[in-house]
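Usage

Read records sequentially. Each one opens with the input sequence:
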Amino acid sequence: MPAEFTPQDVLKIAALANLQLEPEEIELYARQLGEFLAYANDVQQADTTGVPPTASVNLTLAPDRPDVVRDSLDIEEALANASDADRSQLHGGFFKVPRVIG
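and closes with the structure output:
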């Protein structure tokens, strides 16, 4: 993995991301990306011999909450605070919201 980025590399990445960069940004990002990759290379050099693969760093798992069957709200109770709701039994009761797709 190369640890240096050229301005041309940054411009290629910027084009893929549909970004327009100022000339000073190109130089800055080339330097920053190079520093990031150099650090990533350093991390990859760490000796992990004898370290088991880790699926999670959370050593204490939260217990699952047991499922409890309960009655649900009836339509009138669920729609009690709705300013504009369809309370008809025909449709089962729905909240009405403003149209957002034209």
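Summary fields computed downstream for this record:
- The radius of gyration is 28 Å.
- The longest strand covers residues 85-86.
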